[in-house]
Records
---
Amino acid sequence: MNVLRVWSLSLLFAAGCATAPALRERPPLPDAAALDGEMQRALSATGAKGLALAVIEDGRVVTTRAHGLRNARGEPLRTDTVMYGASLTKTVFAYLVAQLADEARLDLDTSIASYLERPLPDYPDDARYSTWSHLAGDARWKAITPRILLTHSAGFANFGFLEPDGKLRIHFAPGSRYAYSGDGIILMQFVLERGLGLDVGTELQQRVFDRLGMRNTSMMWRPDFAHNLADGWTAEGNVEPHDERSKVRAAGSMDTTIDDLARFAAALVRGEGLSPQAFADMTAPQRPITTRSQFPTLQDALPEGARREDLAAGLGMVVFEGPQGPGFFKGGHNESTGNTLVCVPRGRRCVLLLANDVRAEAAFPHLVRFVLGETGVPWSWEYGDRTFWDGR
């Protein structure tokens, strides 16, 4: 039986239901003119300067659209404009790790200690990663596995440099709960590069970007990006120039376009490049999520009765149960970027949104609903106490 279906049934039985409610019908997708009109309305309502959107149905890209500006000079945002991938990079990276697990290059449930030549805290400091020496004296790092890292349950803060003393530490038993961590993803990158001898940038380029025809996507800055590049706008309306990333960071260094990333989203939702088991591992619940919202990272868990039973960590993404059946999503965010990917495997449908203005995030719930209908994405968990544009 499909892993996602097992989860659906387990939730119903836990709630005391004997039979599953009928899944909501999938609404027809809006046409291009309707999408363009709604995107323009969203920009006007939020004050955002630029927004790109892609629609996937039956695992194929139906359309990509772009509206607004890519920079303060007033040049238009296009579907081939280079934009930040931000934390959507984590999902692309998890896809790579799932492929390596498929090939038996690593085991998702084996301690990372098995892949390293020396204890993790003994590695010298390297600016490409985090400072693993801070973990000296805490043997719990040996309990960390690739699955734990990809489900954000290593016990780290988002980044060690954000700790009050700037030092990375383990706050809870690895694997015991979810707490979003960029450093956990960076540690997975470290294991691949120092343990398996791989170059993550090269692997992603060959296995994903080149294979899927993502010609304007890279994990590091490329000079040819400069002629069609999106700068960003902050919540205060200030312009933030596009950063020229000089090193591969699996947690968020990817530059891409809506045309390119739509190709990845389509491949992902149809399971291309993955075995059925690997696709199930990525998109089925792996770890309960017990907090009220995603951030702050290390907030207290809710009492058991107050937790959302329809929400869990997949590998490099979050999975949920909604009125159209199981779904998965991943966001990406910095001071001048707002991104989201939402997919419903039933019908292999997705919406991808890339914005070079963080203010556009206020329109994301409405835009996803406008395209896919009500999916059940846990927006309040993703964004916390935010005020969203309701489409009126």
---
Amino acid sequence: MKKVNQTTVAQRRLEGRGGRFLTSRGSLAALADRPEGYDVVERLAQSREDEVHSLAALRWRRMLESPLSFLRGAALVMAEDLARGPSAPLTLQICGDAHLMNFGVFASPERRLVFDLTDFDETDVGPFEWDVKRLVTSVVIAGDSIGLRHGAQEKLARSVAREYRVAMRRFAEETRLDVWYSSLTTSSLMQDLRGAFADVTRRRIDDVLHHLRGTDDRRAYQRFVTGGEEPRIVDDPPHFTHLEGTDETGITTEAILGVVANYDATLATDRQLLLSQFTPVDVARHVVGVGSVGSECFAVLLSGRDHRDTFFLQIKEAHASVVARARERDAAQDPAARVVHGQRVMQVTPDAFLGWGTVHVDERERSFYVRQLYDHRASIDVSRLDDGLLEAYGRVCAWTLARAHARSGTSAQIAGYIGGSPRFDEAISDFAQAYRERNARDYRALHDAVVQGRINIEH
């Protein structure tokens, strides 16, 4: 059995505090310059292997919707910007794309509604503050979109960063089992936050949760599945489209069904038994999000007892994370296995059908992860938030992110590094405001590229 580090919390805090000699907290405010001649549009346009090029125009259009949408689609660009600057000497499993739209409500295997991080395409081992910076930056950009002035944006950023710091210091005092099993159901969330938020703020958070919107299984079935004895997925371009033969990256419907047929070895035995009671009946390409557009992604409809007993699986191709690419690190494991491992570490209640599989295409192995689709998922509508609700939501996300990081077992070291003063909050806030300005310039550059004809946003 591996020997466990049984140093005291105080000793681990001291270890984390020592990291300040390598990277000071104040230095985390710095936004490094880009290389001379750097062209953000060209960087974004560089094709990824196995990308569905016919979806490129759709991805550009979605990124052009707002500066926040642009940020979501430019995860690699921000990761590379972070890699050029100073990073804390504390690495652990991070989300890699922890913007505020990447949190939401979904159903746990026990059918409770929980609030947590929801997407792990970019999860990897990296500096913990990369997640904090991306979250706080996204909150600042969202604040800008609802008309907050710069002073209010600074206050907002510091409040969210402070919540992460305070929550991490609290998690550092809890036992490892308490951290690992901490509950995040929407009902218990308010109780769990009683000691962290004033009553008026908790009422605002409760309001935020009521603003969440999403599609559950029943509504998805009614909208996207034809009725009758032989259920099929309804074509709804670009959301759902059926493949005809082999697509442009060499993927076929048969290849996707092969992933479903063989990935069950990555599930627990009880989930294997449950999955064996369902039969795939249809497959369609599935296009969602902003940054994910262009990746091979499919929905598989499965039927159990009869045509009224159905559910969706999402089959999505995984690639090297933006964290690894930005840090110029070789992948340590299969890309889809990395996604599944990261999700299982960071989420309190991962999807019961979460697993991964591979398929050979043109004598090359390609990696896909599998999860349940439309499992009572819901995400926030930023446009419906005022400044108070946005702060409350940002703080809940920060608290949730701290809990996700704490599950790696390094909460005391992080708590020691970030300390009890507001220096960490101020540094993260300064970085977020600087990055808001850079993101705005990049967003304008993308608009200019459309006008100049450098990129095509038409079908």
---
Amino acid sequence: MRELLWQIQELNKKQESWEVQGYVDVSDQYGDLSVGGKCYPYLGDDRYLLEQKEPMNVAITVGNPLLRKKIAEKLMQNPQLQFPNLILAETYICPDAILGQGTIISMDCRISTNVRIGDFAFLNMASVVCHDGTLGDYVTLSPDVRLAGNVTIGNESELGMGTRVIQGITIGSGVVTGAGSVVVRDLSNHCKAVGVPARVRTS
């Protein structure tokens, strides 16, 4: 959360885009957050958002795909809540890329031509999606993930930091890759793969 708040600050230096009212969490254990010399107040738990009577923009900053999905499905019960895409500073996105709602594209990301990204995806800093890529709903790309052209990632998959995926690979839904993995073969649903080249862990 703090990192995204800092990225919003950097974006606003170039172009005033978002005014952050504060943050919501299951508890107030962190109190007010101080980031880059600014203080962001704790607003309350999920009930604060579920009880909103006026339109409000919300960003779900949780990295875990399944938890992000659980939160999104809960908050979407309130029709006043809107989930715009959060596109941060120093990001390049081809105009023909198609993004679903609630997607976060962190600074230094690159999204090439004919890319489709589903709802509530989270692309962390310096991730790259090359031409003709498809990312499903609730996909998480950790920092410095690189996807070559024509790669498909299924819903709720999470690629660890620095993962590399060669061209034309299909990764199923609910897949997790370890940090630094190099994926050179298709991965089926709900598996964990690690290593160079990445191999499915059976235990």
---
Amino acid sequence: MGLRDVVYDMYARRIVRELAALGPDQLPRHVGVILDGNRRWASLQGADSEQGHRAGAAKIQDFLGWCEDANVEVVTLWLLSTDNLERPAAELASLVGIIEGTVTDLAATGRWRVHPVGALDLLPSHTARVLKEAEDATKDCDGLIVNVAIGYGGRREVVDAVRSLLTEQAALGTSLDDLANSLDVEHIASHLYTRGQPDPDLVIRTSGEQRLSGFLLWQSAHSEFYFCEAYWPDFRKVDFLRAMRAYTMRQRRYGT
């Protein structure tokens, strides 16, 4: 371990002590992550995009371990957007294969409850089956909930929620007029991909980009955001701890 690593380790330990002194209500229960920068990381290494995606996938289990240590209850990982489905066929096939392997490996640990979020009908049938199998295999796990956002888009989620709500109410015989008069926020929330879960308290985006790009549009209305310059494969525990500390230093106003 070099001097720089020693310094970072000492710094990380200090932040851990600071966080440990806080009450659970001061720490995020749900952390969302936009895992950005895999392809740009690969370009800097003189590698192809597949190697970047593999390097990013290799970071995920470490990250979930850091979240466990910080008593986070829910993590949402944005692995594939609906826009990503428009990528060239060869690149998309490689990325989907990496995602399938990653989700299978997460399930195989037996540590976490894997929950797919996204429009699974847009995905290859094999991919949808892998996601469903991972969810079924981990449904009784006591660990943190890991939402794997695959084929996910925030606008598509809201549309799917409204469609599901209309279908449900039609089956109950509710007229459109009655539904329009009674419709409220909770009606929509109860049909989101993440229904029953707390909304994200903290959303982290790597790679230096400072936008949500449609990530958890409904749920992130009152989230705190943390933008990190590091590309996802280079994201370190100390970067995560900095994000956590930044969250604890903010006065949450919930939109006011």
